[in-house]
Amino acid sequence: QVHVVESGGGLVQPGGSLRLSCAASGSTDSMNAMGWYRQAPGKQRELVASITSGGIKRYGDSVKGRFTISRDAAKNTVYLQMNSLKPEDTAVYYCRASYGGIYWGQGTQVTVSS
User: Fold this and answer.
1) 65-92 in b/e burial notation, b at 16+ Cβ within 10 A?
2) For residues 36 and 50, is the Cβ–Cβ distance under 8 A?
3) What is residue 59's predicted lDDT score, i.e. its pLDDT?
4) Which of 3, 40, 97, 109 has its CB 3.0 to 4.6 Å from that of 91, i.e. a possible disulfide?
5) Beta bridge partners of residue 98, listed in sequence order
């Protein structure tokens, strides 16, 4: 079993930055990939960014050039640095971890508003 916990959400003004963290604990011997998804009210959950155990990164089209995913393998933690935030980035951000099975965190709210 793997437990996934997100942190770092909050309220930020347009153009601002936030950094999200996602820590996995438990049976974390074989990580395949970790990533961030988001879901805004009335919309489907979408990929924000992901990173594989080999370091291959993938980004959603709407965040390319603004968001950066990184990983600290020793800590089983991934980070999402979000810059130049826009109101349309407002959503609940979920961490997804692939360790054999798929595990989701409970989500952290990101609100971009003036």
Assistant:
1) eebebebeeeebbbbbebeebeeebbbb
2) yes
3) 98
4) 40
5) 33, 102
* Structure token digits, residue 16: 């601002």
Task: Quick: pLDDT tens for 16-30.
Answer: 999 999 999 887 677
Burial of 49 (0-12, 13-18, 19+ CB in 10 A): buried
Distance CA 23, CA 97 (A): 9
Averaged pLDDT, 50-67: 96
Measured CA distances, 33 to 30, 56, 114 (Å): 9, 9, 34
Give how far Cα 1 sits from Cα of 23, 25, 95, Å: 14, 9, 16
With a cut of 90, say whether residue 79 has pLDDT above it: yes
pLDDT of residue 51: 96
- Please, what is the end-to-end C-alpha distance for the chain in angstroms? 40
